[in-house]
Specification:
Helix content is 46%, strand content 20%. By secondary structure, the protein is an alpha+beta fold. It holds the Pfam family PDDEXK_4.
């Protein structure tokens, strides 16, 4: 394969990979806490909104939505608070297994197994035995609530999807939207549904990304090597720029300032051990330039700063105000960056030469 074809192939891989870059999502109270994708917190919130006896003011909105998806709305009609006997989280069977959610009405009982990411390997027979023993006079119904469809679900269990539940809840939420008594819980429900939508979206992207990476893994490794070789080449070119100004030892260190890459250049024999000049590689292929000056006594910093601050640069301090820092907001192409970099090398050389 000639170079032209190789470049076209890699270009195609890069363009496909950009599909998996996730857009910044709206934060929710769940994502802020870092547990928005965990089954237990989601089950806890589900239990709260399913329970029509709770203070949220949404009545049977969640419960009736689930029952509609199970196609049993003709069989279960008494959903109001006065008919709900039990809404229980993690009911423990005789064998010590835990059932995610049990809701019992006057003559029926609904079991919900919540599956976010995990495979279905629960002891469903044990769950059924527990329900039949505890609620012998009630008609049992069994649901597995999941992000993606689960194949091979045994009867009498039925699989319903979060995507469909969210749609059903939104479709039926109209009468509750203008109820001034449940404003707090309306916000909370909206946030909960938004969090579920984000979890669903992330999961689908993750699955597609995994398939893409598996299919193109060797090519992706080659691209990473190309990137690393590019950074090494840039490092060598700018070391050469320093040596055009003064032949001296140059130490380079590469840092990941994601999504940027920073290459620090140290000239200990000229600038001292810690002062360094930084070339920042930007995601768009352009460059920025920073420099950091160490070892200036605080009492002398204000005066020395007047000599260190290069035209067009901004200054600030770091390291408990012991490090004088400078950067330009201008961005450069490769040749422009080399010219600017050379000027800053000369600027630092002159400054430290005058200190001698």
């Amino acid at each position: 394969m000639n170079k032209s074809n190789i470049f076209l192939e890699y270009k195609d891989i890069i363009e496909k990979a950009t599909r998996f870059k996730q857009a910044k999502r709206e934060k929710t109270v769940f994502s802020i806490g870092g547990r928005g994708h965990y089954e237990n917190p989601i089950s806890d919130v589900l239990a709260f909104f399913i329970d029509s006896r709770e203070e949220h003011g949404f009545g049977t909105l969640l419960l009736s939505s689930i029952i509609n998806l199970l196609n049993i709305s003709n069989e279960i009609t008494n959903l109001d608070a006065e008919f709900i006997e039990v809404v229980e989280r993690e009911a423990i069977t005789a064998n010590g297994n835990r059932i995610d959610l049990v809701i019992a009405g006057s003559d029926w009982v609904l079991v919900i197994e919540n599956k976010i990411y995990h495979y279905l390997n629960n002891p469903l027979n044990d769950y059924e035995s527990y329900i039949n023993t505890r609620y012998p006079d009630k008609t049992p119904y069994y649901a597995i609530l999941s992000i993606n469809e689960i194949y091979g679900v045994p009867a009498p269990w039925k699989n319903i999807l979060y995507h469909d539940l969210i749609f059903e809840v939104k479709k039926n939420a109209g009468p509750y939207m203008f109820n001034s008594t449940n404003g707090k819980w309306l916000f909370f429900l909206h946030d909960f549904l938004l969090n579920l939508e984000e979890v669903i979206g992330e999961y689908k992207v993750d699955q597609k990304m995994i398939d893409f990476v598996q299919e193109n893994y060797s090519k992706i490794l080659n691209l990473i090597e190309v990137r690393d070789n590019y950074i090494t080449s840039i490092k060598k070119q700018f070391t050469a720029v320093i040596n055009e100004v003064s032949v001296t030892e140059v130490i380079e260190k590469i840092h990941n300032w994601s999504p940027r890459v920073a290459i620090r250049f140290y000239c200990p024999d000229v600038w001292g051990k810690e002062t360094n000049l930084v070339l920042v590689l930007l995601p768009d292929g352009k460059f920025k330039i920073y420099y950091y000056v160490y070892g200036i006594e605080k009492s002398k910093q204000e005066f020395e700063n007047t000599k260190l601050l290069y035209r067009g640069y901004q200054d600030w301090k770091e390291g408990k105000e012991t490090i004088l820092c400078y950067k330009s907001e201008l961005t450069y192409d490769l040749n422009g960056a080399k010219e600017e970099f050379k000027l800053i090398v000369q600027h630092l050389n002159n400054y430290f030469k005058n200190l001698e």
